[in-house]
């Protein structure tokens, strides 16, 4: 427990406790049960030094203060300056009335502390900040003389003196000092219940008067301990019954020796956590066609390609294609009673049911998973774009600003222009069709359907890879009329050779020397990827492997510097170096904004007894800039 006593307030740092003030005429006794409280004393305003913004104060004395414990039993609390630990006290704050929630509440710092007999003396250095000026002015003119301390007690020592129970801290430390309003007369003050904030809880029924002059004459009537305990138990049980809680909660609070205030807080917490009735509503999967369609599609996709089925879709895993078709007809309001399997599939496939949607969604899922698994590593070298139409699109690249120019005292800022360059790209559509025959549906052969659908996804990935590899190996001309890799650009090796420390060093030096569109500004193109075909895969892995070097000459400077990419469509010994596309993209690819990646759609097929599906891809690719790539044709 820590105490704050003087003219104004007691501050609590722990659980809510009674907060008191010494500024009225009939002071009842102080009592508290917190872990940390505060204590007040008086200032000596004549020590104010306006030059250094310092003032000396009596921070605390050993004057006793009346308290009550959790059972309501009174005792006198007396600070002992001999047990105060000042060894670890540094940079203690000075607060405005113990309000330490904001930086504005700090009005100074404790410059020094010393114990003088039964008093704790302190020198406070106040803040020169504008928001602290009103408090500083009151200290300077002597109208604000109240000082309180906040402290923590590690252990207590209890004795009985002259029939009075006395508690002294066996070890305590100082936490803060506050400036608070000064009472009119210490000897004729009323200690009434006041709190530093509106949220502080009041408790107890203080009736004792604190004496002045440091002595504690026992002239007041003290409530017998057994009466206080009886009152505490009765109030707790009344509060629990009023809240509609069980008697066992009251028993627990009484056994824990909780005060009435603590019991109120605990009862409120019980009321907040009390369970509320569960209101059951109709689950979406019971009547929402969109939810049913999605979950049935997930179940069909799991049966087609394997993998983990979502928990909410497991109920449909055992349904055959015929079961799904009948379910779709029922949701569409069509009776399937007496229909053969052939008739059921015909009505479900060509009517208004959502059975075709279940199949197409499942196929889309399987195709997309396969498409992602078969993607070309070249896509990691490109910048992705999204285009709104099939018109030719131009990517504009602005040149560099160059350097800032020095100007003299009266010089004018000169303006410059930035060069620009643009490369084009156009989307094209690639497509294939697939017919799901009535025989496949009746036989419920989802394994075959899954293989056919997976082939859609792989075909789309193969198409993209072929386009990107052709764009890379064909070495087309850019908008300036020069091929991407050309000796005049410096990104084409003079002599073909396999990747090695020497050839990679030449490539890196060349890329580091690339200049911007202005032909002057170095853009510092840093190599990040090494792209090879299967012919050089093993050699490249060995080159980039992290191997312990026995000597300096054996150190591989490119270990961990480059990421290896292998494209199986590169069939010779050529290899490429690419910069990070996030920093300097060389290639680009794009999709139509309304259809990114492979798409599967259902088409009406009145000329067949099955269902027709088509897979299509809107894709385009092109070069952006030659400065992000380097080419070596290899040793072969």
From TrEMBL:
UniProt-annotated stretches for the region Disordered: 183-233
InterPro entries the record matches: Peptidase_S78_dom
Domain of life: Bacteria
Biased composition (Basic and acidic residues): 183-192
Comp. bias (Polar residues): 205-223
Keyword terms, alphabetized: Hydrolase, Protease, Viral release from host cell
GO process terms (BP): proteolysis
Keyword Hydrolase among record annotations: yes
Domain Prohead serine protease, chain residue ranges per copy: 106-191
GO molecular function, one term: peptidase activity
UniProt entry tagged with the keyword Repeat: no
TM ranges: none
Protein name: Phage prohead protease, HK97 family
């Amino acid at each position: 427990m820590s105490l704050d006593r003087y003219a104004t307030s007691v501050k609590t740092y722990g659980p809510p406790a009674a907060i008191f003030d010494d500024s009225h005429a009939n002071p009842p006794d102080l009592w508290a049960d917190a872990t940390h409280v505060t204590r007040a004393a008086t200032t000596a305003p004549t020590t104010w030094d306006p030059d250094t913004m310092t003032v000396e104060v009596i921070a605390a004395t050993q004057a006793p203060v009346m308290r009550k414990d959790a059972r309501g039993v009174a005792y006198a609390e007396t600070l002992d300056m001999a047990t105060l630990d000042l060894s670890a006290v540094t940079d203690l704050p000075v607060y405005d009335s113990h309000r330490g929630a904001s930086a504005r509440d700090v009005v100074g710092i404790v410059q020094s502390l010393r114990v003088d007999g039964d008093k704790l003396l302190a020198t406070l250095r106040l803040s020169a900040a504008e928001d602290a000026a009103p408090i500083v002015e009151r200290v300077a003119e002597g109208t604000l003389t109240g000082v309180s301390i906040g402290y923590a007690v590690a252990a207590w020592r209890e004795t009985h003196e002259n029939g009075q129970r006395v508690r002294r801290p066996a070890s305590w430390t100082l936490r803060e000092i506050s400036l608070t309003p000064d009472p009119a007369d210490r000897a004729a003050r009323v200690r009434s219940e006041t709190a530093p904030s509106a949220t502080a809880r009041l408790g107890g029924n203080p009736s004792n008067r604190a004496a002045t002059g440091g002595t504690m004459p026992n002239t007041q009537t003290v409530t017998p301990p057994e009466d206080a305990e009886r009152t505490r138990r009765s109030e707790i049980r009344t509060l629990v019954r009023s809240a509609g809680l069980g008697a066992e909660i009251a028993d627990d609070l009484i056994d824990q020796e909780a005060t009435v205030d603590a019991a109120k807080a605990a009862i409120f917490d019980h009321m907040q956590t009390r369970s509320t009735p569960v209101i059951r509503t109709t689950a979406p999967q019971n009547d929402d066609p969109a939810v049913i369609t999605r979950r049935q599609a997930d179940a069909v996709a799991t049966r087609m390609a394997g993998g983990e089925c979502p928990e909410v879709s497991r109920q449909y895993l055992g349904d055959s294609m015929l079961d799904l078709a009948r379910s779709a007809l029922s949701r569409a309001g069509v009776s399937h009673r007496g229909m053969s399997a052939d008739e059921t599939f015909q009505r479900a496939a060509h009517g208004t049911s959502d059975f075709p949607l279940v199949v197409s969604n499942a196929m889309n899922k399987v195709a997309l998973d396969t498409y992602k698994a078969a993607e070309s590593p070249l896509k990691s070298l490109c910048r992705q774009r999204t285009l709104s139409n099939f018109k030719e699109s131009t990517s504009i690249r602005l040149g560099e600003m160059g350097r800032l120019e020095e100007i003299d005292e009266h010089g004018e800022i000169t303006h410059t222009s930035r060069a620009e360059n643009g490369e084009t790209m156009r989307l094209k559509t690639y497509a294939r069709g697939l017919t799901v025959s009535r025989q496949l549906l009746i036989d419920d052969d989802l394994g075959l359907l899954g293989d056919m659908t997976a082939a859609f996804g792989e075909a789309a990935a193969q198409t993209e890879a072929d386009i990107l590899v052709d764009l890379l190996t064909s070495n087309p001309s850019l908008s300036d009329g020069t091929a991407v890799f050309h000796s005049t650009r410096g990104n084409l090796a003079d002599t073909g050779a396999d990747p090695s420390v020497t050839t990679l060093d030449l490539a890196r030096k060349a890329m580091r020397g690339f200049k911007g569109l202005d032909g002057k500004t170095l853009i510092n193109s840093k190599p990040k990827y090494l792209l090879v075909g299967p012919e050089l895969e093993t050699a490249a892995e060995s080159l980039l492997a992290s191997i312990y070097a026995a000597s300096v000459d054996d150190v591989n400077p490119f270990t961990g510097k480059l990421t290896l990419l292998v494209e199986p469509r590169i069939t010779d010994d050529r290899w490429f170096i690419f910069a990070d596309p996030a920093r300097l993209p060389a290639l680009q690819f794009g999709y139509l904004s309304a259809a990114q990646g492979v798409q599967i759609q259902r088409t009406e097929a009145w000329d067949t007894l099955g269902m027709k599906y088509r897979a299509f891809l809107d894709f385009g690719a092109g070069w952006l800039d030659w400065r992000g790539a380097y080419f070596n044709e290899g040793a072969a």
